Amino acid sequence: MSVQERIQKLVDDNKVMVFMKGTPAQPMCGFSSRVVEVLKRLAVEFGSANVLDDAADPELRDGIKGFSDWPTIPQLYVDGEFVGGCDIVIELYQSGELEKMIVGENAE
Amino acid sequence: MQENIEQLIQNAIPDATVIINMNDGVHLDAIVISPAFEGVTLVKQHRMVMTPLKSAFGSEALHALALKTYTPEKWKNR
Predict the structure, then answer these.
(1) Is the CB of A87 less than 8 angstroms away from the CB of B68?
(2) Of A32, A99, A108, B75, which has the highest C-beta tally within 10 A?
Protein backbone atom coordinates (compact mmCIF):
# COMPACT_ATOMS: atom_id res chain seq x y z
CA MET A 1 0.00 0.00 0.00
CA SER A 2 1.26 3.49 -0.81
CA VAL A 3 1.27 6.15 1.88
CA GLN A 4 -1.71 7.82 0.24
CA GLU A 5 -3.63 4.51 0.44
CA ARG A 6 -2.63 4.05 4.08
CA ILE A 7 -3.91 7.54 4.91
CA GLN A 8 -7.12 6.92 2.99
CA LYS A 9 -7.69 3.74 5.00
CA LEU A 10 -7.18 5.54 8.32
CA VAL A 11 -9.61 8.26 7.27
CA ASP A 12 -12.15 5.67 6.09
CA ASP A 13 -11.85 3.51 9.21
CA ASN A 14 -12.20 6.33 11.72
CA LYS A 15 -15.21 8.65 11.74
CA VAL A 16 -13.02 11.19 13.54
CA MET A 17 -9.34 10.99 12.68
CA VAL A 18 -6.51 13.30 13.70
CA PHE A 19 -2.99 13.35 12.28
CA MET A 20 -0.79 14.96 14.90
CA LYS A 21 2.66 15.38 16.37
CA GLY A 22 2.84 13.01 19.34
CA THR A 23 -0.01 11.02 20.80
CA PRO A 24 -3.26 12.15 22.46
CA ALA A 25 -1.72 11.21 25.82
CA GLN A 26 1.54 12.97 24.99
CA PRO A 27 1.22 15.65 22.29
CA MET A 28 4.55 17.00 21.04
CA CYS A 29 3.28 20.33 19.76
CA GLY A 30 0.95 22.99 21.15
CA PHE A 31 -1.28 22.98 18.07
CA SER A 32 -1.74 19.21 18.17
CA SER A 33 -2.40 19.42 21.88
CA ARG A 34 -5.20 21.94 21.38
CA VAL A 35 -6.97 19.82 18.78
CA VAL A 36 -6.85 16.80 21.11
CA GLU A 37 -8.18 18.98 23.92
CA VAL A 38 -11.16 20.00 21.79
CA LEU A 39 -11.96 16.38 20.90
CA LYS A 40 -11.71 15.38 24.56
CA ARG A 41 -14.11 18.15 25.55
CA LEU A 42 -16.58 16.92 22.96
CA ALA A 43 -16.16 13.45 24.50
CA VAL A 44 -16.02 11.79 21.09
CA GLU A 45 -14.04 8.74 20.10
CA PHE A 46 -11.30 9.48 17.62
CA GLY A 47 -8.44 7.77 15.87
CA SER A 48 -4.99 9.33 15.82
CA ALA A 49 -1.72 8.89 13.98
CA ASN A 50 1.61 10.29 15.12
CA VAL A 51 3.45 11.80 12.15
CA LEU A 52 6.68 11.90 14.17
CA ASP A 53 6.66 8.13 14.71
CA ASP A 54 9.06 7.07 11.97
CA ALA A 55 9.04 3.49 13.24
CA ALA A 56 5.31 3.28 12.50
CA ASP A 57 5.36 5.11 9.15
CA PRO A 58 8.26 7.30 8.01
CA GLU A 59 6.29 8.62 5.02
CA LEU A 60 3.30 9.86 6.97
CA ARG A 61 4.58 13.34 7.84
CA ASP A 62 5.00 14.42 4.22
CA GLY A 63 2.29 12.12 2.91
CA ILE A 64 -0.48 13.74 4.91
CA LYS A 65 0.44 17.19 3.59
CA GLY A 66 0.07 15.93 0.05
CA PHE A 67 -3.11 14.04 0.85
CA SER A 68 -4.99 17.16 1.89
CA ASP A 69 -2.85 19.73 0.06
CA TRP A 70 -2.55 21.43 3.45
CA PRO A 71 0.91 22.40 4.69
CA THR A 72 0.63 22.00 8.43
CA ILE A 73 -0.04 19.41 11.12
CA PRO A 74 -2.33 18.69 12.99
CA GLN A 75 -5.08 17.81 10.53
CA LEU A 76 -8.58 16.72 11.49
CA TYR A 77 -10.85 14.55 9.34
CA VAL A 78 -14.53 13.85 10.01
CA ASP A 79 -16.50 11.35 7.93
CA GLY A 80 -13.66 11.19 5.43
CA GLU A 81 -13.63 14.96 4.88
CA PHE A 82 -10.69 17.20 5.73
CA VAL A 83 -11.96 19.72 8.29
CA GLY A 84 -8.86 21.81 8.93
CA GLY A 85 -5.94 22.49 11.21
CA CYS A 86 -5.77 23.86 14.73
CA ASP A 87 -7.20 27.35 14.10
CA ILE A 88 -10.17 26.07 12.12
CA VAL A 89 -10.91 23.27 14.58
CA ILE A 90 -10.99 25.72 17.48
CA GLU A 91 -13.17 28.18 15.61
CA LEU A 92 -15.64 25.45 14.59
CA TYR A 93 -15.64 24.15 18.16
CA GLN A 94 -16.40 27.58 19.60
CA SER A 95 -19.25 28.16 17.16
CA GLY A 96 -20.73 24.72 17.90
CA GLU A 97 -20.35 23.60 14.29
CA LEU A 98 -17.76 20.94 15.06
CA GLU A 99 -20.08 19.16 17.47
CA LYS A 100 -22.82 19.23 14.83
CA MET A 101 -20.45 17.73 12.29
CA ILE A 102 -19.42 14.91 14.59
CA VAL A 103 -22.47 14.19 16.71
CA GLY A 104 -25.12 15.32 14.26
CA GLU A 105 -27.76 18.02 14.20
CA ASN A 106 -29.47 16.70 17.34
CA ALA A 107 -26.54 17.61 19.55
CA GLU A 108 -27.36 19.91 22.43
CA MET B 1 7.61 40.39 5.23
CA GLN B 2 4.54 41.86 6.91
CA GLU B 3 3.82 44.23 3.98
CA ASN B 4 4.51 41.45 1.49
CA ILE B 5 1.97 39.20 3.11
CA GLU B 6 -0.60 41.96 3.14
CA GLN B 7 0.04 42.69 -0.55
CA LEU B 8 -0.11 39.04 -1.58
CA ILE B 9 -3.45 38.53 0.17
CA GLN B 10 -4.76 41.74 -1.36
CA ASN B 11 -3.73 40.56 -4.83
CA ALA B 12 -5.39 37.18 -4.37
CA ILE B 13 -8.62 38.61 -2.92
CA PRO B 14 -8.92 42.19 -4.20
CA ASP B 15 -11.97 43.17 -2.13
CA ALA B 16 -10.47 41.87 1.13
CA THR B 17 -9.76 43.92 4.22
CA VAL B 18 -6.47 42.65 5.63
CA ILE B 19 -5.33 43.28 9.20
CA ILE B 20 -1.92 41.97 10.20
CA ASN B 21 -0.35 42.10 13.64
CA MET B 22 3.13 40.98 14.45
CA ASN B 23 3.16 40.69 18.20
CA ASP B 24 6.59 39.37 19.02
CA GLY B 25 8.51 39.45 15.76
CA VAL B 26 7.90 35.77 15.14
CA HIS B 27 4.19 35.07 15.31
CA LEU B 28 1.90 36.79 12.84
CA ASP B 29 -1.81 37.25 13.29
CA ALA B 30 -3.73 37.85 10.09
CA ILE B 31 -7.40 38.75 9.88
CA VAL B 32 -8.96 38.73 6.42
CA ILE B 33 -12.48 40.00 5.82
CA SER B 34 -14.09 39.58 2.41
CA PRO B 35 -17.47 39.00 0.78
CA ALA B 36 -15.66 36.39 -1.35
CA PHE B 37 -15.89 34.08 1.69
CA GLU B 38 -19.69 34.00 1.57
CA GLY B 39 -20.96 30.40 1.45
CA VAL B 40 -17.42 28.96 1.44
CA THR B 41 -16.25 26.46 4.10
CA LEU B 42 -13.60 27.68 6.54
CA VAL B 43 -11.01 25.33 5.14
CA LYS B 44 -11.56 26.73 1.63
CA GLN B 45 -11.44 30.31 2.97
CA HIS B 46 -8.07 29.56 4.53
CA ARG B 47 -6.84 27.96 1.31
CA MET B 48 -7.80 31.10 -0.63
CA VAL B 49 -5.47 33.09 1.62
CA MET B 50 -2.73 30.54 2.19
CA THR B 51 -2.19 29.25 -1.35
CA PRO B 52 -0.67 32.48 -2.73
CA LEU B 53 1.40 32.90 0.46
CA LYS B 54 2.62 29.33 0.24
CA SER B 55 3.97 29.80 -3.25
CA ALA B 56 5.73 32.99 -2.18
CA PHE B 57 7.25 31.89 1.11
CA GLY B 58 7.07 28.09 1.25
CA SER B 59 5.06 26.25 3.88
CA GLU B 60 7.64 26.23 6.65
CA ALA B 61 7.97 30.00 6.83
CA LEU B 62 4.23 30.31 7.40
CA HIS B 63 4.03 27.97 10.35
CA ALA B 64 3.83 30.97 12.66
CA LEU B 65 0.91 32.62 10.85
CA ALA B 66 -2.38 32.48 12.72
CA LEU B 67 -5.18 33.18 10.29
CA LYS B 68 -8.79 34.22 10.86
CA THR B 69 -11.19 34.72 7.99
CA TYR B 70 -14.58 36.42 8.14
CA THR B 71 -17.36 37.38 5.80
CA PRO B 72 -18.33 41.05 6.38
CA GLU B 73 -21.46 39.87 8.18
CA LYS B 74 -19.58 37.51 10.48
CA TRP B 75 -17.07 40.26 11.21
CA LYS B 76 -19.90 42.64 12.20
CA ASN B 77 -21.50 40.03 14.47
CA ARG B 78 -18.37 38.57 15.99
Answers:
(1) yes
(2) A32
Choosing among A67, A69, A72, A86, which should be mutated to test the B contact, i.e. which has the most B CBs within 10 A? A72
pLDDT at B9 over 60: yes
- pTM of structure: 0.82
ipTM of the complex: 0.70
Q: How far apart are CA A34 and CA A74, in angstroms?
A: 9
**Domain of residue B20, residue span:** 2-76
The rounded distance, in Å, linking the Cα atoms of A38 and A86 is: 10
Looking at per-residue pLDDT, the higher value among B25 and A58 belongs to: A58
Does A72 sit within 8 Å of B63, measured CB to CB?
yes
Span B10-57, pLDDT tens digits: 999 999 999 998 877 667 889 999 999 999 999 999 999 988 887 777
B67 has a chain A CB within 8 A of its CB: yes
**Residue positions counted in chain A:** 108
CA atoms of A97 and B13, how far apart (whole Å): 26
For the domain made up of A3-103, the CATH class stated in words is alpha beta
Selecting from A65, A70, A92 the residue whose C-beta is nearest the C-beta of B42 gives A92
Q: DSSP strand E in B1-78: where?
A: 17-22, 28-33, 65-70
Among A84, A87, A92, the residue with its CB nearest the CB of B66 is A87
Instruction: Work out the minimum CA distance from A6 to partner chain B, whole angstroms.
Output: 23
Q: Domain with B54 in it: what CATH number?
A: 3.30.300.90
